Input
Amino acid sequence: MNNPPRTDHALTEILPTWGVLVLESHHSDQFTMDWRVHRFLKIIYVLRGKGTFFIDQQEIPFTAGDVILVSPNQKNRIQDDPNAASSLYICCIDEKVWSFDHSIPNQVAQVIHHRNLHFTHRIASAMRRMIHQQPLDSASRPICMVSEALKILELLVQRNQQARFDRPNLESDLEIIERYISYLPSHFFEEQSIDQVCVSLGIARRTFTKHFQKITGSTWLHYIHQLAIEHAKKRLRHSDVPVTSIAFECGFNDLSTFYRQFKRHCGMAPMEYRSQKSD
Output
């Protein structure tokens, strides 16, 4: 397999009419970059290498797997480590893509997200899909590129919202978990696994399990299912939404699991519950 072409200078960022561009920038050992300012939001995934991003007055060290954000109108340049030239994916998103909410740059304003097997990998996957879509001469190309860009923005906004679980003022594990539990009633349907939760909170699984059980009197999975079933009961009582849709709302990917959990918690099937409540 041939090595990708290397560049000595930063690539030119000319956005198409739909407002989303992805570049692959593979730096040579002689790479240099002058200061530049742009009106679009720039999101960089570091594939290989390490170095320093200079963004206004900040110096941001980076390494492979990191995601760096440059907001509109920020002066920026990159300097590679002399022994580790960088390879980058660069996603440029014009302001018209997020014109429906001009607070988006502030909502994603954290400058760097360090390598994370779940979060930064999802950013990289979205950019990889865009790299495949961008060269295609098809009517669907603009909407595909814009939709992937919006997914990246959504991931970044959600990540910053999750920062509430960081440890201000040396918060204890117990306090972090208490705040997490207070957050669950409106976000239970987003949870995927206890391991991912523990990673996002920065707490060992054994510690998390012990404190969670002490606070709630329940295991994590049972508690998530309990919140989901309570939501399902409300929807069954107060709406005509199909059971399949309710199962989806509750975070269940298959109907059989939803039926099984509902019957375990309520002692009857969802439609039986609905018919009793409408009597």
About this structure: The mean pLDDT is 88. DSSP finds ten helices and nine strands in the chain.
